[in-house]
Amino acid sequence: MITIVGGGTFAYMHRGGHRAMLRAAAESGNEVIVGLTTDRYLREHKAYSGPNYEERKRG
Predict the structure, then answer these.
(1) Cβ atoms of residues 18 and 34 within 8 Å
(2) d(CA 20, CA 14)
(3) DSSP state of 59
(4) 3-class DSSP state of 30
């Protein structure tokens, strides 16, 4: 079994980057685990003003 793990903010799913990355991961492994950056991390480490965690989680 091959597990692919990836993560990010995923503020806005865009075809060029996010979707391509997830598609490649799905084609490369049996299981894909996606980590979603928390609001706390974004406040402390990034200049971010997009959707909050729950909104990003809903996709």
Answers:
(1) no
(2) 9
(3) -
(4) coil
